[in-house]
Amino acid sequence: MTEEQPEVMKVAGSALQKGGAPMISDPRAIGYAAFLEQKHRVIHPQGVPVDDDAINDILFPFQRRLVAWAGRKGRAALFCDTGLGKTFMQMEWARLIGGRALIIAPLAVAQQTVAEGRKLGLDVTYARSQDDASDGITITNYEMFHAFKPSAFGAVVLDESSILKSFDGKTRGRLIEAFSATPYRLCCTATPAPNDLEEFGNHAEFLGVCSRRDMLATFFVHKDTGWVIKGHAVEAFYAWLASWAMMVKLPSDIGFRDDGFALPPLSVAPAWVEDNSQAIAQAEGRLFYQGLHGVTGRAAARRSAVPAKVDGAAAILQASGEQWVVWCGLNDEAAELTKRVTGAVNVQGSDSLDRKAGAIAAFLAGEIRVLVTKPRIAGFGLNLQRCHRMMFVGLSDSYEQYYQAIRRCWRFGQESPVDVRVVLSHMEAPVLENVLKKEAMVQQASRRMIDSMAGYERQELGTANGRHDGELPQADVVGEGWRMLLGDCVERLSAIAPDSVDFSVFSPPFLNLYSYSDSVRDLGNSRGDEDFFIHFGYIVDGLMRVLKPGRIVACHVAQVPTSLVAEGVIGLNDFRGKTIAAFRAGGWVHHGEVVIDKDPQAQAIRTHAKGLLFVQLHKDASWMRPGIPDYILLFRKPGENQVSIHPDIDNDEWIEWARPIWYGISESDTLNVAEARTEKDEKHIAPLQLGTIERCVRLWSNPGELVLSPFAGIGSEGYQSLLLGRRFVGIELKPEYYAVACRNMERAVTKTKQGRLWPPEPGATPAPQP
User: Least crowded by CB within 10 Å, which of 17, 46, 433, 514?
Assistant: First the structure.
């Protein structure tokens, strides 16, 4: 288990928890059903039992259910929209967990939390250092967490935890490391953007669920447009996310009534001011202003229009007698506007913590009419809903800052319509258009994500167990000399009589997570090497049961390249060696192996591997490596072979095939895979070359004997076995591949005009017609 793998993620081979049971090393140590349950990528409870009746009655029913769930989990995130009561929920969670708890919050939110605690009958202590901490719940600001001793607390809460993104990597890393040993952890923030992988990754790392790199390697694939969820990983990702985070925009998202949770009307209107675009054009040496050009152009446009925007903003504010929150992005904007507007107070980054907190408190008390500040100072966590008028003087392209700033006033509990003015020059119109476009996209995507998670969330809230795989469809089709079984090969091997198979040849998945299905029964859907080979051990046992004594299994493998994203290093994973070890652990004799020559140039074109590219040869040959060959690993079942094998090959063929390296195998000599491809497949199915299968079948079986593939795919091994006069039994998990395999069996029968060698069993489904 790598250091970055989560202690709390119970997957086979990575089930070691602090103080827990030893890691599983023998696949026979637990039953197959129990192993599959452990293979689910969900975070299992390790908190404290919480009864809904023990939670303060002030909380709404949906809030009590969320608190009880988070308490049972022990480490969890509440992604609840603004105004849904995260403050109450986090304090109740800290109380019920028991012991000393530390809440870390943005500036000025701490004082609001202390006041909210009194409503719950809780004495929450605001502290600036460990010396001031209480034995119950202590709260401090993010700027001061370094003055506390994490080991002194049994629980920690990050309030407005999305602020993690605002810290530099070093500070964020220190925060995550500081509380890595804290038993109980809770993150609370508004619902994150659905495509914000950084935010999900930050929370997962802080909670000890997994690292950002681990999350990406497990559920995502990098394409030209960026990171996207793997096709077959969509449902698994939502189930995994819902096992440690609740994403809620409305109580109805998790099965409760929305009574009392309706947002007031929101009006966002631009207030346009004149600009000096011509002056900017002249400064750029242009005859006419040609629009914004990148970050530099946007910054220049914003700075150039400061006087006009201050004039326009001041006129609006002076004409109004109501309270306003004014968001500025530039110091000059904020300073000049404060001078021009009666009753305005500027809260800026250079102010002391006491002055910042005092000014915000005075605004909340109604003593300040116009609060001028920046989103990064007061845009997270604060409840400013006593005010319902807001202004942006200029705008950045950050949708998150825009959204968070507006939600300080526009939130559940706000009783007045919220009026937002955006003061802009005409040059900055593209910035507003960009932010509004992002808003529409994020809201639509967020709604889709919450709807996708809803089922898993409700299941989580109703039970502490992870989801279970449903029963896979099964089928048993018998044709002329062949039989195809649909289902889990571990289970379907039991349908084959003991000591009945003469030879087995197959190509297992090569650690390809979510490449072909999302089922935990899929060997290729394994989180890591240990997970994979524990699962593979059940298959090795099944092969031992059905193969005749003294007979051979031919297993096709290749070394697996590693990547920076998944393993943190570019290199090779010794898949060949680990496969040999798995068979030997299952009682098999390592009988021999063959290397199959591969074309390195074809590999370079197909994989773009850094070590095979001509450009790397001339840039830095330390990265260069040979092409990766295929291997046929041969394993013999102990015991005496009862029927001698007489290969139908001549001496010349034997001289060629007895070499440790097989040449002349055409990489394109495969069955057609196009008809089996599905849109969710991240990788094309790679059937074993027919030439390789032919050599294996002719060398290690007699005509008329039974050949087995537990990973039949589209039926390559069966197709070739039938053409060579053998019988075949195959097992395939994926229905799409299974259907194609059945058709390929019939094609082989039609091609050879072979007679009936294997009478259909009673009740078996007739073979489909080609």
Answer: 433
Q: What does the pLDDT read at residue 676?
A: 54
Same domain, 664 and 601: yes
Report if residue 129 sits inside a domain.
Answer: yes
Token pair of 511 as six digits = 């650690």
- Answer yes or no: are the C-beta atoms of 649 and 698 closer than 8 Å: yes
The two beta strands, 155-159 and 101-105, are parallel
pLDDT for the residue 680: 61
Q: How many domains would you assign to the chain? A: 3
pLDDT in tens, 492-522: 999 999 999 999 999 999 887 777 788 889 9
- Asked if residue 510 is part of any domain, the answer here is yes
Answer yes or no: is pLDDT of 419 > 90.
yes
The pLDDT assigned to 389 comes to 96
Burial of 8 (0-12, 13-18, 19+ CB in 10 A): buried
Query: Within a domain: residue 134?
Result: yes
Is residue 628 within 8 A of residue 601, CB to CB? The reply is: no
H-helix or E-strand containing 633?
strand 630-636
Q: Which residue has the higher pLDDT, 463 or 528?
A: 528
Taking the C-alpha atoms of residue 749 and residue 737, their distance in angstroms, rounded to an integer, is 19
In a domain, 20, yes or no: no
Looking at the structure, do residues 601 and 561 belong to the same domain, yes or no? yes
Domain that residue 140 falls in: 46-254
If asked whether residues 550 and 605 sit together in one domain, one would say yes
State the pLDDT at residue 698: 96
User: In angstroms, how far is the first alpha carbon of the chain from the final one?
Assistant: 48
pLDDT value of position 9: 30
Question: Helix (H) and strand (E) counts for the chain?
Answer: 25, 27
Do β-strands 475-479 and 482-486 pair in parallel, antiparallel, or remain unpaired? antiparallel
State the Cα–Cα distance between residues 492 and 476, nearest whole angstrom: 10
